[in-house]
Write a structure and sequence with these properties.
TIM Barrel, about 375 residues, single chain, alpha/beta, five-stranded antiparallel β-sheet, SH3 type barrels, globular, disordered N terminus
Length: about 375
Amino acid sequence: MGKKNLVSSSTATCLALGLLVGTVPLAAGVAAPASAAIAVAAELSIDLPAKVRTTDNLNLRTGPSTAYRVLVSIPKGTAVPVSGRASNGWYKVSYAGHTGYVSGSYVVAATVRTLDSLNLRSGASTSYKILVTIPRGNTVPAYARASNGWYKASYAGRTGWVSGSYVTTYPKPPAAPQSTGPNRTSRVVLTFDDCPSSLSSFNSVISYAATSNIGLVLAPTGNCLGSYKSRYGVDLAALARGKGQWVINHSISHPDLRPLSCLQAGAQLSGSGVHTNFGRPPYGAIDASVRCGYDSRGMGIWTWTRDTRDWEAKSKSITVARAAAAVPGDTVLMHMQWYGFSPDALKQIKAKLAQRGVNVCRAYHGTDGAGAVVRTPVRLPVKLPC
């Protein structure tokens, strides 16, 4: 990808600034509004910027709407830490010793990270003069966002504009080997892609894995997650995490991502897909555009070292034998709709590996590795506690 266009300037072109939000506090004695029931995203979600910057003087309120009481006014241009986001777009932030909510309409991510070498321009389009080129991978302060998606940013003493198509607000992907991911141990990680054949089979596998101290890595597609939510009202990713299993992204609809642009590949990694910091490209197909797409979503790529080709063999015994041939540190690829995804298959694989002195990754027991199996975090640690 060649150098992409960045913008820069005091030009107010297409700015979505807005005025002081909700200046009238909730009257004394007035009950909290119905918006009190608005869901707030879990803290440290992969999709939340670490900080947001106010684009105007902005009221910090006790709840996520203008009906709530004002705690304090935050000056324009102030960067504040984020700890959550309500379903209506209001951010939970902290400022001057207070924690409350600010409207998402009047804040912008406090920093953006370049996905390629990028031109900082004097205005919010490619027709403006180039001020300086920002190298790929640099994180720069952001101050506003134009209606066309360009960000007002600063670099090397210059303030201008950069194209929103070539920056991201996500953190840098975790540094880990592509084929073995965050497993830095000699234990074997058994991984399963795609979608289970039934809810009962899924529940039986994750329950058996938890009771047998096996830590699986599951990579369901977004379409799979959406299907089970609509049919049964369940979140497969949440069910798996609740049993001490790890869940990574596997795109929304499982396309070959290589024909897509960086922006299109990134879109396939969001939406109904798993939002976390590791993902597996469909078919293991990777090129520069695919890497850029994962980078844009703050995800490290985790493929595999041993492919059982269970979809081709369509045999439980063959799949078990191929998985059980793993060597220390291997990441083994299987699929949830085939014969390796069953309690009996897991039992056989673990036993056959143990006969050769090879152990499987353990279910999650918390950061200290002791006690009962507990829920895994949404973000995987850079070193998996296998």
